[in-house]
Amino acid sequence: MTKLYSTTLLLLLAAAAFGQPRRLIKATSSGDWGAAATWTTTGNPTTPGNNDSIVIASGVTVSISGNGTTYNVQDAIVDIFGTLVFNEASGATKHNNLNIVTASSNPVPIVRLATGATITKGSSANGTANINAYVGGTVVGGNIVGGTPQLKYSTGSVSGVPAGQTAGPTINGPAFAQNTTGQPLYFTTGSNAALPLTLTMFKASVNGNNVVINWTSQQEINTQMFLIERSTNGSSWKQVGAVPARGGASGVATNYQFEDIGAPALSYYRIKIVDNDVKTTYTSTLMTRLTNSDINVSIFPNPAVNSVNISIGSNLSQQGFTVNVLNHTGQLIAHRQIGAGTSVLSFDLTNYKTGMYTFDILFTGGTRETHKLVVTK
């Protein structure tokens, strides 16, 4: 049983690219690319990483600064609605680089600028900063292994740029760059390569024994359907609703609501966005817990890739606790002590290898829980 209403918009969220689920990380306040405070995710603030959908919101400026600062991200896509600025130190002698690495040689947009968005160099920039595509490579331990590099953008001088393309030092949207080593080599101007449907709000709230999902879309030009999916473990998903898209024009907000009647005590929700050409993308994941739930601890998603969330039930959230992580041989590889008042803890798995891990959680009141987590890379 479902209900449909309208609501207001609050946050910026872009749908995933490459046709698969990925973490959304967005800059909603200006700051440096390498500062966790610049970015917002569904868990604790982190910086952009592999397989991320990276969004710079309208009116926000994100800076890449330093003398030889390099960021390598695997299979990520950067959607810019605001401004990306490269700042080099005075008299800089090294490159500041943003390297986007793709294992596949199939042409895929890796950086997209909306109308009004900009990539540029800082006013005092003296060195050279670049955006490079590394096609057919991988990021291992933060370093690039293999791949064919192709310059896409530079704050320096680039000669022989074909008509309809630009390599900087200032690029104004709409424009996009692909992971191509052949034409187009640089940013294609005058088109945004179909920027994804933008959800300006996506949230879930509990209403008795029901869960209400609210979302607001923009740029709803090629969207056919919203499929609401629910999970009780963060990894196995079931469709619980379908809402037809109403086809709002670019920049016009369209508001939706779906109510899941009789929801489980602990639930995870995401929306599968279906385009008219049947391509699909996913939102990030939201977790809800009914107020009468007596679940102590849940870990999601499971399996996980780069991070996992530990959710503490209201009956234990006022206690401090200790988290011990053991690998498949029983070796202790991580230990964290958490103070009272924590309801959701984000755990970084960037340096974890593929395999099975045990999370042993001991509360100050004596309650102990053990959970298995599968990490996949």
Can you give a write-up of this model?
The chain is mostly beta strands and 377 residues long. The chain folds into three domains: 17-189, no CATH class; 198-289, Immunoglobulin-like (Sandwich); 297-375, Immunoglobulin-like, CATH 2.60.40. The chain is built from no helices and 33 strands. The strands form seven sheets. An eight-stranded mixed sheet has the order 4-2-5-8-11-17-18-15, with no helix packed on it.
Secondary-structure blueprint of this entry?
Elements: E1 13-14, E2 23-27, E3 31-32, E4 39-40, E5 52-56, E6 61-66, E7 70-74, E8 77-80, E9 83-88, E10 96-102, E11 109-113, E12 118-121, E13 129-140, E14 143-154, E15 165-166, E16 171-172, E17 175-178, E18 187-189, E19 198-207, E20 210-218, E21 223-231, E22 238-244, E23 254-260, E24 266-275, E25 280-282, E26 286-289, E27 297-300, E28 307-312, E29 321-326, E30 332-338, E31 344-348, E32 355-363, E33 368-375
Parallel strand pairs: 2-5, 3-6, 5-8, 6-9, 7-10, 8-11, 9-12, 10-13
Antiparallel strand pairs: 1-19, 2-4, 11-17, 12-16, 13-14, 15-18, 17-18, 19-20, 20-23, 21-22, 21-24, 24-25, 24-26, 27-28, 28-31, 29-30, 29-32, 32-33
How do you describe this structure in short?
The protein has 377 residues and is mostly beta strands. Helix content is 0%, strand content 51%. A hairpin with an 8-residue loop joins strand 17 and strand 18 (187-189).
* Uncertain runs: 1-21
Helix percentage range: under 10%
**Total strands:** 33
Overall pLDDT: 83
Structural class: mainly beta
Taken as a percent bin, the fraction of beta residues is over 45%
Characterize the overall form. Answer: globular
Rg on CA atoms, Å: 22 Å
Strand order of the largest sheet: 4-2-5-8-11-17-18-15
- Number of helical stretches of at least 4 residues: 0
C-alpha end-to-end distance: 38 Å
How many domains? The number is 3
Largest sheet: 8 strands, mixed
